[in-house]
Design brief:
Jelly Rolls; mainly beta; 3-stranded antiparallel sheet
């Protein structure tokens, strides 16, 4: 895929995903043989491309990440190489969310950036999160998430230029470890489902 290139990927009607009635699809996306640092953005067709990243990589490194992407009316999702060089892209489907009200109650929102410690978005100040530091992030009523009636959210958490560490995501007041330790001085994104 070319630098800045975009793929419109048909997901409905393929690999066990129904032709109609699909709200979102669960994909495992992989980049391999990237010729430069970069990131991938995934979003529904016919929608405005978000500024958030779903997968970040460095030159020559193969990286995979699981993403949940709302599906456009035409059954497609868009994938964009936001790197400065070419890369190969692989997308494997793992499941989907249906529009059946009696089944899944998953509701796609965003993607919308709720936190960026570099620009004081979602918390005061622009200093990096310190070692053993905590960030209390309000998600209800923001980025398309309803103010009430929500039991869990799907977040894509990205760490930038870090020493080895572990990110733990949990409801306020309840500690529960999850996440993936990135390598030193790497950009890493990882999806997480946080319930309360």
């Amino acid at each position: 895929m070319a630098a800045g290139g975009q793929v419109s990927l048909q997901v409905a009607g393929r690999a066990g995903v129904p032709q109609s009635g699909v709200k979102a699809v669960v994909l495992n996306v992989t980049v391999t043989e990237p010729k430069s640092d970069g990131h991938l953005t995934a979003w529904p067709s016919a929608a405005t491309r978000p500024e958030s990243s779903n997968l970040n990589w460095t030159t020559g490194r193969t990286v995979a990440n699981q993403v949940v992407v709302p599906v456009g009316e035409d059954g497609r999702v868009n994938l964009r190489n936001a790197g400065w060089g070419t890369t190969h892209l692989i997308a494997d489907v793992f499941g989907y969310y249906s529009q059946d009200a009696g089944g899944s109650t998953y509701a796609a929102a965003g993607p919308s950036r709720l936190l960026d410690s570099r620009s004081a978005l979602g918390r005061p100040g622009t200093t990096p999160v310190p070692a053993r530091g905590e960030v209390s992030l309000k998600v209800a009523g923001r980025g398309g998430v309803p103010q009430s009636g929500v039991r869990a959210v799907v977040l894509n958490v990205t760490a930038l230029w870090v020493a080895p560490f572990l990110v733990c995501l949990c409801p306020l007041g309840v500690w529960n470890s999850s996440g993936q330790p990135p390598l030193r001085h790497r950009r890493m994104a990882n999806p997480s489902i946080v319930d309360w």
